[in-house]
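Task card 7
Instruction: Convert sequence to structure tokens.
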Amino acid sequence: MMIDAEPLKPYLAAVAKAREDWESVGAAYDAAPAEKRGELFAVKFPLAEQAYYRACEELAFVVRAQVKDAESASAG
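Output:
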């Protein structure tokens, strides 16, 4: 069974971008003075984390659809 990887590419790119953004928030947290860290952690870090998990979830939905299509094609 083979799946079509082409439809996955934008989702893989979105996951990579979201991870990069999440990591940059973490780096900004590490570099920030102590008085700014609370704001970074309380606001920006959870938003970046959620964006990453949402991108991963969307990728999983597309992979699942591609697998389902490939299974249907190989069964028929």
